[in-house]
Amino acid sequence: MNTYVNPELLEIAKQTASTPNTTRKKMFVALASGVALIGLGFGAYQVFLGSKHVTTDNAYVDTDAAQVNALTSGPVKEVRVVDTQTVRKGDILVVIDNTDRRLELEQAQSALGDIGRRVQGYQANNTALDGQIMARRADLARAAAELARAKLDYGRRLSLAGSGAISGEELSSFKTGLDAAQASYAQAEANVQGAKGSYEANNALISGLPLDQNPQVTAARFRVEQAQVALDRTVVRAPVDGVVVKRTVQVGQMVQPGTPLMTVVPVQQAYVNANFKEVQLKKVRVGQEAELTSDLYGDKVVYHGRVMGFSGGTGAALSIVPAQNATGNWIKVVQRLPVRIALDPKELAANPLRVGLSMDADIIVSR
């Protein structure tokens, strides 16, 4: 049995069957073209831009904060600043009651004056003892002369005793005089040695130096200077320009040396710690230029800086509880290394930042 097929209907059926295939082919071609364009675009970006920049949004503002501690003891008399207050280097922050330190200074000054007078007395004694030595030497010379005369008189009488020209009693008298002269000479000689010893002992106390160079005076003067330093430290001043944070001191609080009072953050010396992945640091070098933006000001404010250096270790390695990579359940994780970037002081002054603010960092590694 022959079936008649309308040619027109057959043609329409063929066109209808081929339409999905054609559409599918066009879609695949378009998709392939899109992937190729994306690949070409990414490759061009890497060649012309990506390979010349490394970027991260894991960056934060930091600075070297100045810890302000008490350097002497005493009750707090005044606190002249509050948190968030801007201070200049040398501004008074805290005043500690100085009564004890003032009394210590006066006591040290009094001791210095007393020791100075004592040393002056030693010097005056030296002059007196020197005169005493001269007097003792004169006594020794007189005793020596008397001894020589007594020897001569006794020798003459002794030579006459054999002829009977002199009595035994008279000879004994001259012998006694000779013995007395010898004793007087020995005493005078001992007096000279004693005077010399006293002079040397007194001279050792002043060491033969001027008053201002005497060891006792010098030590007393150092104690005065130390007491003056302690008195000066009752006024606590700002060590740097910056902003006051973490103020913990209160009026009436008893502080000891080392007690934390507050922190001064030198925001004008802020820098950025940018935490780059280790795979990004191959071309990064110290001195390379960087561009940074902050979440505070947005993309309209661009900071320009330079790479200052690299941290000595990753955040994971330097954490309080470092990762134990030697354990059996180890999983490799790409590490980040902090890179310090210095900021332009003029740009920082125009648009101040605060510690901890988020930043986007872009290091230009082609330069």
Essential attributes:
OB fold (Dihydrolipoamide Acetyltransferase, E2P), alpha+beta, 14 strands, 5 helices, four-stranded antiparallel beta sheet, Helix Hairpins, six-stranded antiparallel beta barrel
Describe the structure.
This protein is α+β, with helices and mostly antiparallel strands and 367 residues long. Among the domains are: 66-98 and 232-265, RNA polymerase II/Efflux pump adaptor protein, barrel-sandwich hybrid domain (OB fold (Dihydrolipoamide Acetyltransferase, E2P)); 101-229, Helix Hairpins. 46% of the residues lie in helices and 23% in strands. It has 5 helices and 14 strands. A 6-stranded antiparallel β-barrel has the order 1-10-13-12-11-14. Strands 2-9-7-4 form a 4-stranded antiparallel β-sheet, with no helix packed on it. Strands 6-5-3-8 form a 4-stranded antiparallel β-sheet, with no helix packed on it. A hairpin with a 3-residue loop joins β11 (289-294) and β12. α2 packs antiparallel against α3 (168-206). The chain is rod-shaped and about 200 Å long. The protein starts with 6 loop residues before the first helix and ends with a strand.
